[in-house]
Predict the 3D structure of the following.
Amino acid sequence: MAHQDVYQVLYTEPAAYHRDRLDPTRRASFDKAIEILARDPYTELSRPVGPGEQDREIRLTSQIMAEYVVSRGRLLLVVLRIFDDADILLADS
């Protein structure tokens, strides 16, 4: 299946909420990762979630995981999970 050059990126309300709460450094990294993903949402670094290829997940940065849907030239970010070192119960030794 041929893919277009750049997919339109859309966000669910919860995903936009988490995106908007990122500090400036994380936001810059996030935005850069989204730019890359919009050009290739089927990158080999992503993996399908469920039976089809259109529902996917990817680790955008070391601290941000995204679940998204690809459909008709659009990339819809459904869930963003933000990881923070302060949230770790037991740090690696």
About this structure: Helices lie at 13-20, 24-39. The first strand starts at residue 8 and ends at 11. Residues 44 and 58 are 10 Å apart (CA to CA). The chain is about 25% helix and 30% strand.
